User: What shape does this take?
Amino acid sequence: MALIFYNTLSRKKDLFFPIDKGKVRMYTCGPTVYDYAHIGNLRAYIFADILKRVLLYSGLKVKHIMNLTDIDDKTIRDSQKEGKTLEEFTEFYSKEFFKDIKSVNMLEPTKFTKATDYIDDMVLIIEKLLEKGLAYKSEDGSIYFDIKKFKDYGKLSRLVLENQRENASGRIASDEYDKENVQDFALWKAWNKKVDGNIFWETGLGKGRPGWHIECSAMSMKTLGEQIDIHTGGVDNIFPHHENEIAQSEGVTGKQFVNYWMHNEWILVNQKKMAKSANNFYTLKNIMDRGINPIAYRFWLLMANYRTRANFVWEALEGAETALKRLYGLYAALGKEIGKISAEYKLKFKEYLEDDLDTPRALTVLWDVLKDENLSTADKKATVLDFEKVLGLGFADLKEEEIPEEIQKLAKEREQTRENKDFKKSDELREKINSLGYEVKDTNEGQKISKI
Assistant: This one.
């Protein structure tokens, strides 16, 4: 089967062909480490994780880079508010992020890159953009990219350049701006003691620090090369961040920066955008504080296509957890023996995933496997564990339940009564087992005991 992905650049599903046969270079826009990641952020990272797992499942080697933005307007502002050094402040939230991705069973990227480790690389790119006349220095010493000098500006977000406002002169040099505010963006920000405090770098560009957009271009090009296969992020990154990445990267190299741009849709909460002011801003900790397994959030996301807006409500997440527990129960009842992977089910599972990561249909295959009475329990187990390589729902980590000795004795006694055709006594023993919190099922391979 061929891999097909929706490419934001072409606005259609494209056949996937890596630059180097058998190898994929993939970059994911990671978190700005100034706060805990919220559930919307996590959707972007879980989507990238599923994408990477599908690539690996298809036999490709993947070099995956995810950045940590540890220098920008927000990290400077909030570190100063807390009276901490930038490194001390961002290190705390980086560690919290690592805990979160472990909780939702994400594979770690090949490398995490911290923006502050790549300042020299950013400076080199900016110097080349100045030499090419694609960037200019403003009166305060900051350096901006001249978007009118890059003929393809707007090709990712489909913006009309004529809507551009005044150039950077006289405006606030903000890292982020809204979709109506098409303007030259900061590559290098001259040091402003009032805003930046003691945070700056002394470079050939002057005393200052990088803008947000140049960071990802420098980190991706340094670790993956001038051209990469796949770049992922949320739809909110399309403009201005990814549009600006293209302009500065292609402006400096003259080559196409990314072949496949892939973006996940928003997570809404009760049909509204998440915001602390709206009191609907949720993190993984909020989910865990309710006693909900964080993997249930991963499972809930997989129940929808990554390009579909999802509306988060607690009842839906609780329903997803109930379904996940049901799957765990069906899996636990399969026993210890691992047989052969079902070729038929694997083909169907792979076919759905290779069609733009169709996880909702892939999950239907998982349910079909577990409910198929014509498939042996050993082969079911092998097939589920194979699917687990992509789904990451924790089946491989489930520990076999220790059945108490009392329950085992009752089950053995019940088995004997069934052999003696004493079905009344057998039913009584089943009810007693149930009253103690366990259930017993009769299968072709004998009794299966599990916790209710």
Remarks:
- The first strand starts at residue 4 and ends at 7.
- The chain has 15 helices and 17 strands.
- Residues 39-57 form the longest helix (19 residues).
- Confidence is low (pLDDT under 50) at residues 166-172.
